[in-house]
Design a protein that fits this description.
The chain is an alpha+beta fold. The chain folds into three domains: about 20-90, ATP-grasp fold, A domain (Dna Ligase, domain 1, 2-Layer Sandwich), CATH 3.30.1490; about 95-220, ATP-grasp fold, B domain (D-amino Acid Aminotransferase, Chain A, domain 1, 2-Layer Sandwich); about 230-375, 3-Layer(aba) Sandwich (Rossmann fold), CATH 3.40.50. It contains twelve helices and 19 strands. Strands 1, 8, 9, 10, 11, 12 and 13 form a seven-stranded antiparallel β-sheet that branches. A four-stranded antiparallel β-sheet has the order 2-7-3-4, with helices on one face. Bound molecules: guanosine-5'-diphosphate (GDP) and manganese (II) ion. Manganese (II) ion binds near residues 191 and 205. Manganese (II) ion (MN) binds next to loops.
Length: about 375
């Protein structure tokens, strides 16, 4: 789950990271009032879950109430990378001397957290990595030792911070680390970490991604989820207990098991097709869940063919077949469908599909199923 800037900064601040004073607003009036209380100049910032807001016009400085109202109005009517802006953060504007980067991520290959810092803050880290990779400095944090002062000092030196900033930088690094570990994040980032004209360090922007698998430990954050982060279909899938990610291809995939779903997508790609989604209906999927899954797939207008790839283990093919038939009765799809059902009760499963009277293109292997789905998506006769 991604957090908004204002949420991330709030969590960082609770661990001692200095942030500008600010208030959230959802109308130009509210923004104006907030600016009045905070004092001018203020910076008004779109709260959307994508980067590069600045370039998209989502961040503006305001010196007067008129400017604040105008900026808030303009920003609140923006869509940034297709996301509507529903709220703005009004922050006391900082006088920036320089912009640094400080971030913490899980390095899966290393099985450790990696803290990264750069003197080239203000641009996205991917951009720094591309244009000036030598400006990114990293330290790996041994999970048994955690963050130590020498880690922070090493980074501070590497990015050229003077002795006068060491203590503040260490404190911010520690706050970021503690927020990260306490809230089970997979990423926490301050960009820019500003050095102000008065020589202070201040986290002007914050970004945090929490591990969804750990969210059950933080039920108080569930209400922080931004429904715009997911498509309506992804949201429905999550509530139904399905793992579903929408993609931009045209072959809808319904698969039991995440590994098999990945393999199915690979094989589709291999034969020149494009999957419309990742969908894992899980082990032991019952008819009802299958029906929900199929409804979701068919609700996607890009889907030109549906591919069922079911490997019956715990999941019984007859149960899945019943789900498919129930869903077909409800949705009455007009796209071709390819089915590969193997494993537990496969014979019963095929008979149920056959008896249903719906035309399904059948396949015995994944390769055959993928070929047929790709052909059907191109409008060539399969079956
Ligand atoms: P992002 O583009 O979505 O990452 O948004 P940021 O919050 O990082 O802001 C982008 C840029 O706006 C920063 O790198 C700063 O240059 C500028 N900016 C943000 N806040 C302030 C502020 O308080 N004062 C000034 N002068 N500039 C700011
Ligand atoms: Mn930023």
């Amino acid at each position: 789950m991604k957090l908004h800037e204002y949420q991330s900064k709030q969590l960082f601040a609770s661990y001692g990271v200095p942030i500008p004073q600010g208030q959230l607003a959802s109308t130009p009036d509210e923004a104006c009032r907030a600016a009045g209380e905070l004092g001018y100049p203020v910076v008004i910032k779109a709260q959307v879950l994508v980067g590069g807001r600045g370039k998209a016009g989502g961040i503006r400085l305001a010196q007067t109430p008129a400017e604040a109202a105008e900026a808030a109005e303009a920003i609140l009517s923006l869509r940034i990378k297709d996301l509507p802006v529903r709220k703005v953060l009004v922050d006391q504007a900082a006088r920036i001397r320089s912009e640094l980067y400080l971030g913490l991520v899980v390095d899966r290959a290393n099985r450790q957290l990696v803290m990264m810092a750069s003197s080239e803050g203000g641009v996205e880290i991917e951009e720094i990595a591309r244009i000036k990779p030598q400006a990114i400095h990293k330290v790996s944090l041994n999970p048994f030792l955690g963050l130590r002062d020498y880690h922070a000092l090493t980074l501070a030196k590497a990015i050229g911070l003077g002795a006068e900033h060491m203590r503040a930088f260490s404190q911010i690094a520690r706050g970021l680390y503690e927020a990260f570990t306490h809230w089970d994040a997979s990423l926490a980032e301050i960009n820019p970490l500003a050095v102000t004209e008065s020589g202070e360090l201040l986290a002007l922007d914050g970004k945090m991604v929490l591990d969804d698998n750990a969210l059950f430990r933080h039920p108080e954050l569930e209400s922080w989820r931004d429904v715009d982060e997911e498509t309506p279909a992804e949201r429905e899938a999550r509530l139904a207990g399905l793992s579903y990610v929408q993609l931009d291809g045209d072959i809808g995939c319904m698969v039991n098991g995440a590994g098999l779903a990945m393999a199915t997508m690979d094989v589709i790609k291999h034969f020149g097709g494009a999957p419309a989604n990742f969908l894992d209906i899980g082990g032991g999927a019952r008819a009802e869940r299958v029906a929900t899954a199929l409804r979701l797939l068919l609700a996607d207008a890009h889907v030109r063919v549906v591919l069922f790839n079911i490997f019956g283990g715990i999941t019984r093919c007859d149960e899945v077949a019943r789900g498919i038939v129930a869903a077909l009765e409800e949705v009455q799809p007009t796209v071709p469908m390819v089915a590969r059902l193997v494993g537990t009760n496969e014979q019963e499963g095929r008979e149920i599909l056959l008896a249903s009277g719906y035309h399904l293109i059948t396949a015995a292997t994944l390769e055959e199923a993928a070929r047929k789905a790709v052909a059907a998506a191109r409008g060539e006769a399969g079956g």
